[in-house]
Predict the structure.
Amino acid sequence: MLIVKNLVKRFNSTLAVDNLSFSVNPGKIYGLLGPNGAGKTTTIRTILNIIKPSSGEINFDGKPITYEYYNIIGYLPEERGLYKRSKVIDVLKYFAALKNVNKKDAVRLADMWLTKLNISNFREKKIEQLSKGNQQKVQLIAAIIHNPSLLILDEPFTGFDPINQQEVKNLILSFLSEGKTIILSTHQMDLAEKLCEEILLINDGKEVCAGKLSNIKKRFGGNNIRLGFKENGISLKEFPEIVKFDIYSNYTDIQLRDDIIPSHFLKKLIEKIEVHHFSVIEPTLNKIFIDLIKDDIHK
Amino acid sequence: MMKKIIAIARWEFLEKVKTKTFLISLIITPLLIISFSVLPSLLFRQEAPRVEVIGIIDTSGIYFDNLEKELEKYVLPDGQNNYVLINLTQPNQDIEELKKISDSKVLNNLLEGYLIIQTTSNDSVFAEYRSNAFGNFEIVSRLEEAINSVRIAQILQREGMETNIISQIQDRPVVNQKKIEKEGKVSDLDFLTTFFLSIVFILLLMMMVIYSGQLLVRSIIEEKSSRLIEMLVSSSTPDELLAGKVLGLSLLGLTQIAIWALIGLGLVGTALVPLNAFRNVLPMLIYFILGFLFYTTLFVGIGSAVNTEQQAQQITTYLSLILMLPVVIAMPVIQNPDFIVTKIFSYIPLTIPTVMVLRLNVQNVSNFEILLTILILVLSIIISIKISAKIFRIGILSYGNKLSFKEIFNWLKE
């Protein structure tokens, strides 16, 4: 279990991380979300022991970070790149060596992963001869070849086609059953929604919202319905039950006041307009993200 | 700790050794150095191994026979006379006419050149050597010497001096140059050899510094721009990374030098490079290694502060030019090693290695001075490692904007 307590990181005059606290349980994927420049990378770098925090504590499995820590963490950075002119197997062996994996195991593990991700035929090829997707697979293997117990993945899905995305997703899910602690940082809210059980949303280095995704959804779920109706000149603004609405080409998403029961509202609606679709919807993480960040900026 | 440094060093070494650039520089550099070191000795060996035909126009009529006698002492290895003189003097012909005819003979390669000797009433001599090239220093100086001794002999004879006394007077002593070595040994290395050997050494150091330094900078920048550095520093400490890189790439440089040294030893075997050039081998080696380390650590600092290869190249080129400085000041150093400017340069860390190597070869540098400069160099290396490591630690993770000195200064304070 990873516990981060009162983490602060200051660069000269700017406060990049402002008093963050959170804990990540093994066997779960923890989502670290936030807009660009929110302080995600800085948070990740302090967890990775790349930079020292200005104050605060980071504990993994009950111990503060030590030198040994380097060998049990795996990190896939957001921006990818490898030694272009080197051979796939050599690059993997090098990264394994950097994590203190002995040579024999390194070759065995590299071959195992190359086979698992269907790129074993590129073993002796130079990185630059591989397609972008396959290069990313090699980098993913480099990040996990030492079987880390703490894995930090920054945008692991970008640059993959849907089939490969599926492969990577399955791979990540397989780590869960092994009891690894995984932090996922991403902008792809739909994926975070599917994979993460808990999330931390940050903006300007500060926590905006944190906790179990299901609780957050309940908390911010409000009272939302999706409506399809025939336009007849009546504006939705006329309904006092509606807090706000977004009109799309086929549907309109509506947020109702908390005290309104959707089915009662439907009855009232039917009297005034012709309804051809009505459903109660849960807010997407995407919507929560946008709403929260917008609110945060306005504050 | 060491395990990772070795892993990093191994990687840097093996990946670079496999490249074509390494092979090319392995071959091209010795070719350059060989041409620098061997060509001079080859050129000086070409001591006219053939008979030269030289024309003489002697209006006085007294010089021709005597000159022929004087020049007989220059003999080719096969026993033939080096010079054959032909008398071009035609008693009734105009001198200008004679010149015209002789000029065409030179241009048609019938003559190597010809000498005009004219005497005036008050015993002074006008002489002119005409050939199709300037720079026949050897023949001109030999002719000069011959004319002079003939002329002096003529005058002395006229004054009634005995022949054997004349020849005694004519026997001119030659001043030989020797450099006194420690323990009373004497060296007769000539100026040019000293000069070229020092230059070769400096070039070698410079090439190795530029080559390894640029490899180092390029390797840092590649990892920076591909963001690979983030994966690396989540696997090892920046200090390990730095140590591994310097170790691996220095070994690469040493491998090159070792291969070149083998080539060099081969040359010594053929005696093209004088063996006694390697007298000060120990201090030279120390200066070489320390100089290399000093520049390498400087390059690391620079490499981690910049983001593109162009920026890096600009700065590294300037740094490498500083290494060239001794070549510029070589002449004054050789002629006057105690010159104050040379003294100053031999205490500036950037120029210590090269200037000291130059001085070691042309004068006797006291052990105290050697130790002092080595100490300065070692201290500079330690300081430069500290600063570079700090810049490296922060610089490798800062991309984007060009860094200002102010920013780097702030890092150092942190």
The interface with chain A takes residues 1, 3-4, 7-8, 10-11, 14-15, 19, 222, 225-228, 230-237, 397, 410 of chain B (CB under 8 Å). Strands of chain B lie at 52-58, 83-87, 113-119, 125-131, 179-180, 186-187. The radius of gyration of chain B is 31 Å.
